[in-house]
TrEMBL record:
It comes from Citroniella saccharovorans. It is found in: Cytoplasm. Belongs to the guanylate kinase family. Essential for recycling GMP and indirectly, cGMP. Its EC number is 2.7.4.8. ATP binds at G11, P12, S13, G14, V15, G16, K17, G18. PANTHER family: GUANYLATE KINASE (PTHR23117:SF13), GUANYLATE KINASE-RELATED (PTHR23117). GO terms for molecular function: ATP binding; GMP kinase activity. NCBIfam families: guanyl_kin (TIGR03263). InterPro entries: GK/Ca_channel_bsu, Guanylate_kin-like_dom, Guanylate_kinase, Guanylate_kinase_CS, P-loop_NTPase. This is Guanylate kinase. The gene is gmk. Transmembrane segments: none annotated. The keyword Kinase applies.
Length: 201
């Protein structure tokens, strides 16, 4: 069976990664969201197993020692990690998967799984990014500062990505990510054609 494709979406906190990914997944039953494990506390409305698997620090560290993660990183003082089995079970079944993870994690995934397709989401400006985070109002002031101050370092890594989307208009950004997924799927289809034509009969 043909393997699924692994898409990694990154970008500074508040740029709209979650908003874009959730809409893309809603419209495509062959694409799944990789639910990460985190030690961060749930925000209002976040559901265990849908948005994250929320775990205590000791539980997360046990998962590290059991080698359960494809990648993990400390982001804004909390641990976040992608479960290896969760991802490879889907890929092996031919299903596509999207990871919404930071740049440290994304580059580690690429180093271990070179077929991964990296997509970076840019804000139209840092000022707009700041106001999106402030309007979302999910972080306290010191947490908010950490996220805003971390934005430049994340954006510097965009150069290593396969695709860049500017999220100035949410619907357009959703459409851009859908197009990238479509184009990457077409590339696999082309490979199938090449394989058939190479067959000896
Ligand atoms: N194009 C857009 N224009 C205006 N607001 C937007 C746009 N895209 C997303 N938003 C809003 O910006 C806020 C941040 O979006 P979202 O939570 O999806 O970001 P994120 O990149 O997933 O953040 P984090 O990494 O912190 O989880 C949300 O309130 C969302 O509704
Ligand atoms: N390296 C990883 N980064 C992850 C993972 N899951 C989420 N994230 C990134 O963390 C920040 C903060 O997320 P938030 O939900 O607290 O706003 C954001 O950049 C996410 O992309 C993961 O498994 N590994």
């Amino acid at each position: 069976m043909r393997k699924g494709k692994l898409f990694v979406v990154s970008g500074p906190s508040g740029v709209g990664k979650g908003s874009i990914c959730s809409e893309v997944i809603k419209g495509d039953e062959n694409i799944n969201f990789s639910v990460s494990v985190t030690t961060r506390l749930p925000r209002a409305g976040e559901i265990e197993g849908i948005h994250y698997f929320f775990r205590k620090k000791e539980e997360f560290e046990n998962l590290i020692s059991e080698n359960s993660f494809l990648e993990y990183a400390k982001v804004f003082d909390n641990y976040y990690g992608t479960l290896k089995d969760y991802v490879f079970e889907k890929l092996d079944k031919g299903e596509n998967i999207i990871l919404d993870i930071d740049t440290q994690g994304a580059l580690n995934v690429k180093a271990n799984y070179s077929e991964a397709i990296l997509v970076f989401i840019l804000p139209p400006s840092l000022d707009e990014l700041k106001s999106r985070l402030m309007n979302r109002a999910t972080e306290n002031e010191s947490e908010l500062k950490k996220r805003i101050n971390g934005a430049r370092a994340e954006i510097k890594k965009a150069i290593n990505y396969d695709y860049i989307i500017i999220n100035d208009d949410l619907n357009k950004a959703i459409c851009d990510l859908k197009t990238i997924i479509y184009v990457e799927k077409l590339k696999t289809d082309k490979k199938v054609i090449e394989n058939i034509l190479e067959e000896e009969i």
